[in-house]
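[Automated response] Your request has been received and processed.

Submitted sequence:
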Amino acid sequence: PFYIFRNASSGSGDISRGPQEFLLKDHVKPFAPGNLVVNATEDNGLLLSWDSSMSKIPCLDFEVRYRNMDREWQKATVLRQTIFNLPSVDPEKLYTFQVKSKVNKYCGTTKLWSEWSLPGYWGKSNTGVV
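Generated structure:
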């Protein structure tokens, strides 16, 4: 761990605090997941997969958000893996998917999420099949 000493001054003089522990692992903001791939399954579902920005995937949790153009975003948490199964979709709708990541409680205590990944698409749009 690192120890930080904070010094400040105000109109009434200098203010000093004792050492505070600073663990770098508790302040990590991962890069956004990449290479989001959406594949149809045989049972009218979808299987999403993506690449993690960290080699230690067990240290990351993910959040997937998805919607078809008629609905609000739906969200799902994915713990320590880089796949997500959406069991049933309407093949006549266009779906948009994104993923973000965060260091999980087993590897740090950060509350910082990555940015959302670039979107992935599946389904039919007004101009054709994506």
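Summary generated for your ticket: The mean pLDDT is 85. The CA atoms of residues 11 and 17 lie 17 Å apart.
If you did not submit this request, please reply to this message.
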